[in-house]
Write a structure and sequence with these properties.
alpha+beta; Arc Repressor Mutant, subunit A
Length: 131
């Protein structure tokens, strides 16, 4: 175990491998899903309104099965819910996983606020600015 201090914020880092909890495994799935621009674009469309898979696929230059694979990744991460009515697949956005991401990101809020404060002090004290 060792500490890292950056911009006045101490963070404790373990050099040992830790077992992933179920929540951390789910975060891995969420970030993997969000790591692809096509999947982010699909989520952006679903943020406006639920849609059928065929509607979601229209703006992309890829096959319907390829879009369905992207949607399956989003489903596995819990970001999309799919309802099947016969041959029609309806997709909608699930907001709950975003709360988990926000909770995880909030751990780093002090770090970012400290970094932004340091940047603000640097800009305010910059002698080049007065030229």
């Amino acid at each position: 175990m060792f500490n890292i201090v950056y911009s006045g914020v101490a963070m404790r880092v373990s050099s040992e491998k830790q077992n992933l909890s179920e929540g951390e495994g789910q975060l891995d799935l969420i970030f993997r899903a969000l790591g692809d621009r096509t999947r982010r674009a699909l989520l952006a469309r679903l943020a406006d309104k639920p849609a059928m898979v065929t509607e979601l696929a229209q703006p992309f230059a890829m096959s319907l099965p390829a879009v369905s694979r992207h949607i399956r990744v989003l489903e596995k991460a819990g970001l999309v819910a799919r309802a099947i009515d016969g041959r029609v697949h309806h997709c909608s956005l699930s907001a709950a996983p975003f709360k988990d991401v926000e909770k995880w990101l909030s751990q780093y809020r002090r770090f970012w606020e400290g970094t932004l404060d340091s940047l603000a002090r640097y800009v305010e004290d910059d002698p080049e600015k007065e030229r």
